[in-house]
Design brief:
435 residues, alpha+beta, 5-stranded antiparallel sheet, two-stranded antiparallel sheet, 20% strand
Length: 435
């Protein structure tokens, strides 16, 4: 592994018997390892070869070359940015994904803590886990655009509709909802820009649980994406029969469900891609590969495209409210000078395992961003799980600067200048290959 720990979770390692463990080493072992040949020999009593039966000879087959979609430069910048965030805020676990939203190609995937595949000794148990595909989190406010998307698509709400956010306090049945700041009348853009939980809860009441559930499944939550890596989880979306009046307010806020980072960034990529949900891929090789015996759940076809909402709705969400989030909302620390950046912040409280109650100290901070807003070339998601330092743990404070740093490096690498308002396409990168 000449690049050391770079992209360690994606590549995986080989054990002492030469078998792939984790990452591409495991899921593509049947291609990388090749097949042995054989030759029948006749020996005398002293073991000396006296004849070679060539008709029975079978030549060995070399292992196939597998090239990944990862860009080594973008991967390096992403890892450095995440490491800086982890150190600055004392983050317990972290993940980051950089994606081409048009093709679904993953340009970088980061998980912390990590390991060096060249020295797999005394590695902490937590370091083996690829948090980008195998950790589940409540998405918080990064989930809100998907609820709004279906509401607009089915004319349940309208773009210019005004919602009374009750100055920060709203009695919803037996539940008293609060916003971080008191807001009055907000349109749909304002609800997303200010990340008003009350505004979203009122949208949830309008949509009812059946439509909220439809939106959740529509964007791929509750099912694995099918990315070519072992260990991907499906997240948690409870059956609608278990949803209640409490769910009507919680789901629009990104609560009562759990997602993986790869699911979340793929769903946001659909908004960047005219409403088309494309299965993410991390293998650049064009040859069709069969599923590995050690990863039988992986579908053969990874370029599945599923319509979600109309291109008009998807484009409006990205170009208007999500762009305003970065310009003047909760994601202002995600700005990049000269670029039209769009984004959404998220801050979710976690349950304290010691008390079994929601904690005011344990949070998941997140930020998703991309550019140019008019035709996105790159999409970045950053997850900071349980930051321990700093006066607050808001996604806009902890994750947004890291997301902006990664996005800036990615745009530079792809040759997207601040004056570019349209994605003209990018020359094929040099991907990373295991071994």
């Amino acid at each position: 592994y000449p690049n050391g720990p770079l992209a360690a979770h994606v590549l995986g390692i080989r054990d002492v018997d030469g078998r792939g463990r984790g990452g591409i080493e495991q899921s593509y072992q049947h291609k990388i390892s090749g097949r042995p040949g054989h030759r029948r020999l006749i020996r005398d009593s002293r073991g000396r070869v006296i004849d070679v039966q060539t008709p029975s000879e079978k030549a060995p087959i070399d292992g196939r070359r597998v090239q990944l979609t990862l860009d080594a430069v973008i991967q390096l910048f992403a890892e450095q940015a995440v490491d800086q965030m982890v150190a600055e805020y004392g983050v317990r676990r972290a993940a980051a994904v950089v994606m081409d939203p048009k093709s679904g190609e993953v340009l970088a995937m980061v998980s912390r803590p990590t390991f060096d595949p060249n020295a797999p000794i005394n590695v902490p148990a937590a370091a083996w886990k690829n948090n980008a595909i195998s950790s589940i989190i409540e998405p918080g406010s990064t989930f809100k655009p998907f609820i709004v998307a279906l509401g607009l698509e089915q004319n349940i709400i309208s773009k210019n509709e005004i919602f009374d956010c009750e100055q920060g306090e709203y009695q919803m049945g037996r539940r008293l909802l609060h916003d971080h700041h008191p807001y009055g009348m907000l349109d749909v853009t304002g609800v997303l820009v200010k990340s008003s939980n009350i505004g979203m809860a009122k949208i949830g009441e309008r949509m009812t649980n059946s439509k909220l559930y439809e939106s959740t499944l529509l964007f791929g939550f509750g099912s694995p994406t099918g990315i070519e890596l072992p260990g991907e989880l499906a997240g948690i979306v409870r059956p609608i029969e278990k949803w209640d009046a409490y769910s009507t307010g919680s789901i629009p806020m990104g609560q009562e469900l759990a997602v993986t980072p790869i699911q979340l960034v793929s769903a946001h990529a659909a908004l960047c891609n005219h409403g088309l949900l494309t299965a993410p891929t991390i293998v650049l090789e064009t040859e069709s590969f069969a599923p590995s015996p050690v990863n039988p759940e992986r579908p053969v076809e990874t370029s599945v495209v599923t319509p979600t909402v109309s291109a008009e709705v998807a484009r409006w969400l990205v170009e208007v409210p999500m762009r305003e989030v970065v310009r003047q909302g909760t994601g202002t620390r995600g700005r990049i000078e000269g670029h039209t950046v769009f984004g959404k912040t998220g801050t979710a409280q976690k349950m304290d395992p010691a008390t079994g109650r929601i904690s005011n100290q344990l949070h998941v901070s997140s930020f998703v961003c991309g550019a140019p807003a008019e035709n996105p070339a790159a999409l970045v998601l950053v997850i900071a799980d349980e930051p321990a330092k700093g006066p607050n743990h808001y996604g806009g404070v902890i994750a947004a600067p890291t997301g902006a740093s990664i996005l800036q490096s990615t745009l530079n690498r792809l040759g997207i200048s601040p004056t570019d308002r349209a994605y003209r396409g990018v020359t094929r990168r040099t991907g990373i290959s295991p071994r």
